[in-house]
């Protein structure tokens, strides 16, 4: 469906369908025809319009965006050539090709090669004299040098590499012939600092080339209009529209149900016990992708599958963002060619362009969100009109509720929204220095340009003045240090004059995505990939770990590389990467509460809920199953003390904030100390003495009042902000990660950022980067806005307080999570099994 333009107007005439003949002929030779939404995008592009294409994965968004500039060039060529002259041959020399016309931004470098192949196919078939290349952090030095002299006709790049191009003094000339910017997988960038980086880059390109058109591609997002507005900016005069794909795909969501249902499950208790069922599912087809939520899970499942089916060696692979580029390319190429039986992957294969569909897609663990599951389902039947199927594999039995809830969300079209970020000043500081490097700017003109983005539309004058003071003088605390006066102003023009400053800045642009990674390389052999330095720092020479599917022995760290040798066995630790705890989305949480309300009425729709009947029976007998408008609070007395279990069902991040908030508010009523635990379903507060629950509820335990004061007071907010400031310091250029081979470690960078934090707190407490650090802690680590909405919902809910004789099934995982924090890994499983056995016997007695 083609929606009416929402901004500006177009005066260019619409092209007739016959203008698409060459592209349609090529599609016909492939046994295909263009979908109506693709033709509508082509017409809109040729009419000078921009827009956002929203269509299911595998339904042709890439060709919809790519066809327009191809048709445009063919029309221009036909108008400028003699009617009887032959078509121009494919270009043989780079200098004979047209200049840069299309800039294609991809969120992941791993997608660049896939996108390259997809764009090259019609380009070659139509014999257009264009050059097509990629530019990411994986691009070789020789190709980068060639591109510095002359960019290709179409360039596939990442947000960071685009910023690097904009930092060059000849950026105006480089983009002089640009016609189109495509932002692929816009929903993945929206709501992140990299998305803000794209917004700023687009605003700069529109200043350099006011006629440039922008088209975004998105598959799974709930707030389409907001996504369009963020992509187009505030000041563009072009018409823009949302084009929806007309070929919705049928999606089948099912689950592998464990053969034995334990009535007291805990997080991860199934482990790889589901392996036989997973193997059976893979063997039902010729190809499969097994998705996991973390890279460490990917390594675990790859090893388990290979150990169970050693004959699959060579036809099974793993894929995640920490692997070396050559390894990723090998996996992607063999997957595309249909030579792999199975690939175990993270979100690195969530996205991308059309490739041969796999027969089965399996999701290990809860997807944590409706959109994520829908995106991964699209890898199966990844072509227009095909049915997509995803099979979920629970890592604990209660995740079956989440599978049923996610299916409900897909049927209802309840896709999560991605809310744009507002005014991250560290990204703005970086961008201002980038523009200063790229030929310079006049402050008032750049301010108008920046305010043309949605992210900075409400940027205040005092904030802009602070940014300018910070980049020109280092702010109030760093004015005495010349190295922090990065931008100089002469005759009204702001530039970076010092070549060393410009070099350091360009090397720091990638820090928006830079986790402190360290390369993993054989002593005599190739580079395997990279892992967080925090993991390597825990290793001693001789320690073994699994990485890239290989057993490795750690030797030493030197020149920012972890040198390893092949270990004789796979016994060892699996790398634990940062950011592995995905929060439960608000949409999925709401659907879970609805499913539980049905269970409270004795309704168990679908095989997943039927499998949970034994668990729900014990929960209802010992306590209650809450309805969607009820808050269940369980009081349980054990040898450890007095437990309070709250079940808001809002996700781990919100619950961590609630746990600290509830403990803080009750501690103000009487002197009491709590131990806390939180998961996606609820929180636990454990104390030696009974907590003043009734008094706290009457006194506003669930109130939104004073939330912004109570939440920081309930946590070590300053220490959390100090940790968050490390990222802000890197992005804003306060700390420099070092030249290649400089050996600067993450620990040194952390110490440097901590020093800046302490200096600012003492001598420049009004520093806006400090304010940002505190704000990001509340929003990114505790989801404070969602926490406020949760309290509003809970304050309107009915309170169900029960006193179960034993720990009920919903509370048991919380008990286990807290126990894990203080019991060694060698004994934790045995202890939990003993706890389970006691509860199972008690449950048997009440049947």
Could you name the key traits of this structure?
alpha/beta; Rossmann fold; 25 strands; 847 residues; 33 helices; 7-stranded parallel beta sheet; Arc Repressor Mutant, subunit A; 6-stranded parallel beta sheet; 5 domains
What is the name of the CATH class of the largest domain?
Answer: Alpha Beta
Structural class: alpha/beta
Biggest beta sheet summary: 7 strands, parallel
CATH T-level fold name of the largest domain: Rossmann fold
Mind telling me the CATH superfamily name of the largest domain?
Answer: P-loop containing nucleotide triphosphate hydrolases
Shape: globular
Write out the strand line-up for the largest beta sheet, numbering strands in chain order. 3-4-2-5-6-1-7
Count up the helices. 33
Write down how many β-strands occur, each being a DSSP E stretch of 2 or more residues.
25
Q: Percentage of helical residues?
A: 40-55%
Unreliable stretches (pLDDT < 50, length at least 5) are: 7-18, 83-89
Overall residue-averaged pLDDT value: 85
Quickly count the domains. Answer: 5
Cα separation of the termini: 56 Å
Strand content: 5-15%
The CATH level-2 architecture of the largest domain is identified as 3-Layer(aba) Sandwich
Gyration radius over CA: 28 Å
Structure description:
With 847 residues, this protein is α/β, with parallel strands linked by helices. It has five domains: 17-244, Rossmann fold (3-Layer(aba) Sandwich), CATH 3.40.50.300; 251-412, Rossmann fold (3-Layer(aba) Sandwich); 425-511, Arc Repressor Mutant, subunit A; 516-566, no CATH class; 623-833, no CATH class. A hairpin with a 4-residue loop joins strand 23 and strand 24 (683-687). Helix 6 runs parallel beside helix 9. The radius of gyration is 28 Å and the shape is globular.
